[in-house]
Write a structure and sequence with these properties.
Blueprint: H1 16-28, E1 41-45, E2 48-51, E3 56-59, H2 62-65, H3 74-84, H4 98-110, E4 118-123, H5 126-141, E5 145-149, H6 158-163, E6 180-183, H7 197-214, E7 221-226, E8 229-230, E9 236-237, H8 240-253, E10 256-260, H9 274-280, E11 287-290, E12 301-306, H10 307-310, H11 326-341, H12 344-365, E13 369-375, E14 378-383, H13 394-406, E15 409-410, E16 412-414, E17 420-423, H14 431-448
């Protein structure tokens, strides 16, 4: 079976069949929608995919965090098929379908927002989830502004691309929405030299306080929005002590805290959400937005908030035609069942321990490996030219990605300078497949450095 296979290359990339399809892609699809991997998938199972030329790859990207339970889980296929035989769609503004309610009830049970009584609405993508979270916060508080952070990625709608730090995602799209202000995210590897972690947390907290002085007074800020682990920004985790400081600021100033868990959710971190760690430390968010692995590849996203907050939204502001689609809700309910039953949170920590041991050994072996970081199975390896200057080494990462794809491993870059390799492997990967991936990536570093 493909799900038990190891990487196997039959043709150089792209193979003849893939080449023909990629030519059709160039003719039919906008060039701005890039793909750096000359690979055309024919099928996928578990953590493995096969292309149209018969090459078999280990996928460490997983649809950028969509496939936590892997490709083509048989139970997921059956759940979607069963729902499809009843009806595909029922818009909740017109006629109620019970799957939406059942999934909302489950999300209200498992999402660790601050208020114990919770409500959930559904949308279609991560960007929509974040945008609706912001709309909920503004409508509830009556305040116009939000604060986001350096390194953030929140989506590609006009609002969320404005919230996103890297302006390559919004070049030439202005004028942009007003009322979005930016603090400095605690990127400890590249933080102020000579500071202890405790002093660095104080430094970044003071930086946030200055936003109220220099950009927007606190009484006009509806919400602070952050990723518990920055994704596109370089897989940088928010230190829990800093999150506690931000939570304290929010409580003192009447600001809502929004966790963007689009990429971090659904067992990726070793808990269902990184916000579970926050809740244990007494700093749970007020609103949580999630998507990606929620429905195993069927488009769906969710916004969960305290009932007091979400019931403060004016009529007509939230909702949408496809949000909470019946097929997607059926898929999501099965995904959550599989994660809980098969203890994929525990499996995430097992995989993370193996990865951290392997990746950390490379820091001592290779001058170009600068930092290994993350939470659970959301990990990043930062590549540099040397350990003294810490100059970002995006060229090396680009070469490594090309080598890996030609040898059966799909990996992806991240970070402001595209010098971080991200690890988002499906949590159903076998130990043998994981070891195979280590060997390919290590060979790539040695061949390309």
């Amino acid at each position: 079976m493909l799900r038990d296979s190891l990487p196997k290359m039959i043709t150089p990339l792209p193979g003849p069949k893939a080449s023909a399809i990629l030519e059709r892609r160039r003719e039919a699809i906008p060039g701005a929608i890039k793909s750096v991997y000359p690979c055309v998938i024919s099928r996928g199972e578990g953590a493995m995919l096969e292309d149209v030329d018969g090459n078999i790859f280990l996928d460490w990207v997983g649809g950028v965090g969509v496939l936590n339970i892997g490709y083509s889980h048989p139970e997921l296929v059956e759940a979607v098929k069963a729902q499809s035989e009843k009806y595909f769609h029922a818009m909740m503004n017109i006629v109620t379908h019970e799957g939406y309610i059942e999934l909302a009830e489950k999300m209200n049970q498992i999402v660790p927002v601050k208020e114990s009584r919770r409500k959930t609405m559904f949308a279609n993508s991560g960007a929509e989830a974040v945008e609706n979270a912001v709309k909920i916060a503004k409508s509830c508080t009556g305040r116009p502004n939000i604060i986001v952070f350096s390194g953030a990625f929140h989506g590609r709608t006009l609002l969320t691309s404005t919230m996103t730090s890297k302006k390559a995602y919004s070049a030439g799209l202005g004028p942009f929405p007003d009322g979005i202000y930016r603090g400095e995210f605690p990127y400890l590897y590249r933080g102020p030299e000579g500071l202890s972690e405790e002093k660095a947390i104080e430094y970044y907290t003071e930086k946030l306080e200055r936003v109220f002085e220099e950009a927007s007074p606190a009484e006009f800020v509806a919400a602070i929005v952050m990723e518990p682990v920055q994704g596109e920004g370089g897989f940088i985790p928010a230190p829990i002590k800093w999150v506690k400081a931000v939570r304290k600021i929010c409580d003192e100033k009447g600001i809502l805290l929004i966790a963007d868990e689009v990429q971090t959710g659904f067992a990726r971190s070793g808990k269902m959400f990184v916000s579970n760690y926050w809740a244990e430390a007494g700093c749970a968010p007020d609103i949580l937005a999630t998507a990606k692995s929620i429905a195993g590849g069927v488009p769906l996203s969710a916004i969960t908030a305290g009932a007091t907050i979400i019931d403060g939204v004016k009529n007509g502001i939230i909702g949408g035609t496809y949000g909470g689609n019946a097929l997607a809700c059926a898929s999501a309910l099965k995904v959550i069942e599989i994660i809980e039953r098969d203890d994929l949170c525990g499996r995430s920590l097992e995989i993370a321990a193996k990865c951290r041991k392997e990746f950390n050994s490379w820091i001592d072996t290779y001058e170009e490996v600068g930092d290994v970081r993350g939470i659970g199975c959301m990990m990043g390896i930062e590549f540099i030219t040397d350990k003294i200057s810490k100059t970002p080494n995006g060229k090396l990462v680009s070469d490594i990605l090309d080598y890996c794809s030609q040898h059966g491993l799909i990996v992806e870059s991240a970070g402001t300078y595209s010098n971080v390799i991200r690890f988002l492997c499906p949590l159903v990967v076998t130990d043998g497949q994981l070891d195979s991936g280590f060997n390919i990536l290590k060979s790539a570093i040695e061949a390309c450095r």
